[in-house]
Specification:
The protein is an alpha+beta fold. The protein has eleven helices and 19 strands. The chain has two domains: 171 residues, Beta-clip-like (Beta Complex); 167 residues, no CATH class. Strand 7 and strand 8 form a beta hairpin. Bound molecules: S-adenosylmethionine.
């Protein structure tokens, strides 16, 4: 149920221009854009609702990251992929670095992955934001830390990267760091394993060479930061290839996009255009999949929609701390295990971790299209049927107020005519 309370207008959505939103902000409704209002929703914390009737394809949010970090383990070189014209990613904007092309490096570390930039602009921005001299020293310290790089999983090394990025953010912009802290950390209590991981990471992070006058963080702060990451990070995926499993190239945390709650049949989905030449290539763009009336909650799916019921419930509970009772789950909860099997239950580690880490994977549900599956229409109309894709289709944005009948896939980028 949505609370009906007074509205507060905020300026634009660029993180630098905004004040921090403490949890208490949800006591009033906040107008986020022409299209969205932030409200408190019983049992779900804050959420975003349509502040006017919304059209399929309409862009309801564009948001720049407050923090990004590489998804590659510390010591391993980013893979050279045969048959591709790129091999690595810019350490600031994460665009593909074209193999053989001249690139710029960090003057201190010249690290071939962590200190390689695609342009003078990225190099200069990185040195004052994403690759400051402290960050450069911290990453080098981590790469030379055998207990971390020789004995811990890739996943844990990436979490160490995140913590370094978060503490670097605190030094660069306390406002942005406060914003990060104001995000939901989810209801997941985290088991003994999570606590052990957090303690280990904390022991490494607190021994980093912090600048004079800055004391190392508390263990509670490290734990809180890890929870924010688990709940709010979006995976920036590698380019789509039909014959290759896509994985994550980097993670990004967005302030406003973090307010979207989950639904297993979402009415909006994310697009990004990371390899294009536009400024703000790591921005996230949220577009409506279909029309919705004013007042309806706008939800994303936190992972590909073609994941089985049991797998969805497991991920939502483990990573986000809630059980989903959406319309689709209510139907699928009554299916037998066989109906639910949906194929291979094995998940890629990266996909398992964060919001929409990957769209399109093998743990799929086959739409049956009969009375047992009233949501079959969604799969037929809004799920990409291209080999190895499984992304979500949304119409192109309306032009001159007229809806588009061309659907774009948010994974492979394919365009196809909407036949409905
Ligand atoms: C990315 S945040 C979404 C915004 C969050 N509700 C807030 O207050 O900032 C993810 C968290 O929202 C809550 N959430 C999201 N979708 C939900 C749902 N369908 N049912 C219940 N809680 C949900 C869970 O606590 C989850 O860990």
């Amino acid at each position: 149920m949505l609370s009906a309370q007074a509205e507060t207008h905020l300026p634009g959505i660029c993180p630098e221009s905004l004040e921090v939103w403490p949890m208490a902000v949800a006591e009033s409704q906040v107008v986020l854009s022409d299209a969205l209002r932030l409200v408190e929703i019983e049992g779900r914390g804050r959420g975003l609702v349509a502040s006017q009737p919304l059209k399929g394809g309409q862009i309801v949010l564009r948001d720049s990251p407050i923090l990004t970090y590489s998804a590659f383990p510390l010591k391993q070189r980013q893979p050279q992929v045969s048959g591709l014209s790129y091999s690595r990613y810019c350490a600031h904007c994460y665009r593909c670095l074209v193999a053989g092309a001249a690139m710029l490096t960090c003057p201190s570390c010249s690290h071939p992955d962590d200190g390689a930039f695609c342009s003078p602009k990225c190099q200069s921005l990185a040195l004052s934001s994403t690759h400051t001299s402290w960050m450069c020293r911290a990453l080098s310290y981590l790469r030379n830390c055998p207990p971390l790089v020789d004995h811990q999983s890739d996943e844990l090394q990436v979490q160490a990267r995140y913590l370094v990025a978060a503490y670097s953010l605190a030094m660069v912009s306390s406002l942005a760091f406060q914003t990060l802290l104001s995000l939901d950390g989810g209801g997941a209590q985290g088991g003994e394993k999570e606590a052990e991981v957090a303690l280990f990471l904390h022991s490494i992070i607190s021994s980093l060479p912090f600048p004079e006058g800055i004391s190392p963080p508390s263990v509670e702060m490290t734990m809180a930061l890890l929870a924010k990451d688990r709940c709010n990070a979006f995976g920036l995926m590698e380019p789509f290839l039909e014959n290759r499993e896509r994985s994550v190239r980097a993670y990004a945390i967005y302030r406003n996009a973090s307010f979207f709650n989950h639904d297993c049949l979402p009415n909006a989905c994310r697009f990004d255009y990371i390899d294009t030449a536009i400024d703000g290539n790591t921005d996230i763009i949220i577009r409506m999949i279909h029309d919705v009336p004013e007042g309806r909650e706008i939800c994303l799916s936190y992972f590909p929609v073609n994941v089985s019921y049991s797998e969805r419930q497991r991920r939502l509970l483990e990573d986000y701390g809630f059980s989903c009772h959406c319309d689709r789950c209510k139907v699928e909860a009554n299916w037998s295990n066989e109906d639910d099997s949906g194929g291979d239950e094995t998940m890629e580690e990266e996909d398992d971790e964060n919001m929409e880490g990957s769209e399109g994977e093998n743990n799929e549900i086959e739409p049956e299209g009969d009375d047992d599956f009233p949501h079959a229409y969604f799969f037929v109309r809004f799920v990409c049927d291209r080999e190895n894709c499984g992304g979500t289709l949304a119409p192109l944005p309306p032009s001159n107020g007229r809806p588009s009948d061309v659907m774009e896939c948010n994974v492979c980028g394919n365009l196809k005519k909407d036949e409905m």
